[in-house]
Structures are given as structure tokens and as C-alpha cells.
Amino acid sequence: MADTLLEQYACNVMPGADYDDGRDRPTLPERLPARLIAFYLPQFHAIPENDAWWGEGFTEWTNVTKALPRFENHYQPRLPGALGFYDLKQAGVLRRQAEMARAYGIEGFCFHHYWFGGRRLLERPVENLLADRSIDLPFCVNWANENWSRRWDGSEDAVLMAQAHSPEDDVAFARSLEPLFDDPRYIRVGGRPLLMLYRPSLLPDAAATVERWREHFARRGDPPYIVMPQVFHEHDPRPYGMDAAAGFPPHRSRLNVAPIAPPGRLFDHEFRGDVRTYDAIARESIGYRPDGFRLFPGVCPDWDNDARSPGRGFVLTGSTPAKYGAWVEAAVRWIAAEAPPEERLVFINAWNEWAEGTYLEPDRHYGYAYLAAGARALARVAADPGGEADLSALAQGAGEAGRPRRLARRVARAGARLSDAVGRALRAV
What ranges do the domains of the chain cover? Predict the structure, then answer.
């Protein structure tokens, strides 16, 4: 156990007990039982807007490298391994990512797509992909239709880039997607290009927007398959006229899992983060099976956005490659039994959300272990399609008794503050 912040930091940036160097890669089945689609964040190259808002040279790595462990066994910082601190302006990075994903059974990426009334941001990775068809990477896009604000430093109301929704913009957005849909690598469901809309409730009339999109693409003979991720209390795609929902953990599950106190001594006595166990989030998600609409289940390797919100992040504790693999297996088995072959999709949140602590890319502490765990899960399902996922790695009842532990945490913080105040007073004497 780490006694100091420095010891915890050193532990986190060194290979751990589950470290996988990638030399002994699991064998994938010839036919995968489901398509794993990983969400992909393109904010790993500098753009003028971020330079102006956050400082010259800002990328996601800027937040990642500032992170510190706030309590014992808190896994921060999370530093990259095999791919290093890459720059997505370099097209070769996306090629390496595609090769790595394919080698471990990831079908493709769902790029977060930023469109603001005709203006695009962080478009370079998709543009590089469209320009080079030799990159073997199936892909689709998720329109992240929120305003951009100074959320990471607490200024929720300071809008940096606002959306400008209108019927005309709906059609302009649809037109902008035509080159993507025309690419033979674009991911389809039943022959229809998969389009994701992140937050339909932010649109003036999401159902009308969806209908305009359908009308536009119907004229091209290419009707889209429109999906809504389950975030911000939005779980059912039917009111918006959409075709399906996709799991986007830990967001929906977080609503149904009790918070806990940090599982160890505090290094930061001002820590105000929201902590839950990975086990509880995974089990809640595995048990969630709605009726009446198509759900593509979602899985996350972990979650910890303290790098973006220092001392007040949302943190999952206890994730391991084995637990992630069990969750992937459960999700794949369910969708394989529930859906026809063309609709057997599982979404992974995410491929490279480093500042939110959820990624599959190799890091310094685990290496390729999470990628390998997902690949082994696919192999287990293929070898025994009628079997059941072994969930023994996921603790039962994790996250219960959240209120007493929150009270204990408040008492501990109050005691720490009192102790600090007494110390300061004595030093002043």
C-alpha cells in the first residue's frame, strides 16, 4: 500500500501485476460473435480554437499529464504506453490505431463529431481517414451536439462555441455527411449507415430533425440507421423517431448505483469527487435489459475524469482487465442471443478517452491487458455460443450502504480540516 502521494504516483506509472506487453496476443475466432465499436475522441491535435480558449498547444494530453492521485489506490495519472503522446495531425497514428484495434477484435471506431451551424472542429482525423482508403478502419460518427463551454474549470455558463439549430442547419448537416456515408468503410446496420445523435433533447424538435434527415437521405436511396446513446436521463429512442439506443456507460448506470467513500486514505483532504465501484456499475449495466426498443449494450474499461476536474471528478474504483473482460462477454452473449447478425453491436466507451480514464489503448501500468481481455471474451463466446458469462470477478453488492460511507467521509474531511487548522494555529504561536 502506498503511504504517500509520491509512492502512489510511482506505482501508477510503472508496470503493475496485470501488465501485458502485447507479445502474446490472444487468438481471435475466425468469425466474431458481435461487432465491437469503440467511441473515439479526436482531441489529440492542437487547433486554433483550443489555443485561444485553453492556451497554446492544448490537446487532451494537457489535462492527462496534470492528474494526481487524490487517495490511496487512486489510479492517476494515466500515461500512454505503446502509442505514446501521439498527435492526430499525423495520419500514421490513425493507421497504427486501426491495426491495433483490428488485432484485438475491435470492429471500428465511432468518432465524436463536432458541428456548429456549418463549422466543424477537430475534424482532422476523419479527414485523414477519408483521404486514405488504405487505412483498414470501419467507422461511423456521433454528432456531439452540445455547446462547448468552460466545463473543465467549473465555468458551466461560459459558452465557447454555441450550437445554432434550425431546419436549414438540419439539411446542411445531412449534406455534410454524404462523403462519409459514401465511403465503403462506413459502418452500416442492415445496409443502412449508422448515425448517432448524442443529445436529441437539446434540439428544438429532435423528431422533426430526424425526419428531415430521413427525407434527405431517402432521396439518395441511403436511409440512415439513427442511434441515441443513453446519457443525461435520455434512455428511450422512440420519442425521437430513432432506430435504437446504445449503452454509454457509466452514465445511465451511475443513476442507479450508490456512491462510496474513497477506498483508502486521502492524499487530498479537499477532494470532493464522486466515487463508485466499477463492479456495481458493471453489474447494473449487465442487468439492464429494456423492452420495446433495440438496445446495443455498452461497456467501459474504467472511468475517472479527475484529470479534467481536479479534486472533483467522477471516479470508478476497482476496475481490472478481468472485470472488463467479464462485462464484454456478458454484453456480447446478450446481443448475440437477442439480435439478428447485422444488429449484433456492442459499444465500448472508449478507445482513447484518456482524460476521462476510459480507454483501450495501452498504458504504462496495464499495457495491452484491457485489449487482450476483450479479445479473450470474444473467443470465449465464439467457442461456446450457448454458455454464460462468468461474472465471479465482479463483486456482489458493491456500492451498497453509500450514505453511511458518505457520512464517514464528511466526518473524516472535517477532522482533517480541524487538524490542519490546529496545526497552523500552533505554528503561529
Answer: 32-398
